[in-house]
Amino acid sequence: MFWNPKIPIWVPVSLYILCLLVSIFFLICYGYCLKTNPDLIRSEKFITDKLRIEKGFIGNDDIGLRETFSLPQNTIGEPQTTESIDGN
Where, by residue number, does the polypeptide cross the bilayer (predicted)? Predict the structure, then answer.
């Protein structure tokens, strides 16, 4: 069906080998990136969401983004006081 007797056999064989080598090259590059830095092969949305989480932002498309804050930590058994420094 695809074979033309006028074409020498080395032409389709060389094209097949070229396609095979290119495929192997891309698989090796993919494996190298996966092993050394997996963030390179992830989507841009994933990376931006990851950066937002690392920077301390929370939210979604409905409520928007806002910065997170941490509450002061009290040790167990100590009451939290609200009086000012001068005692008033």
Answer: 13-33
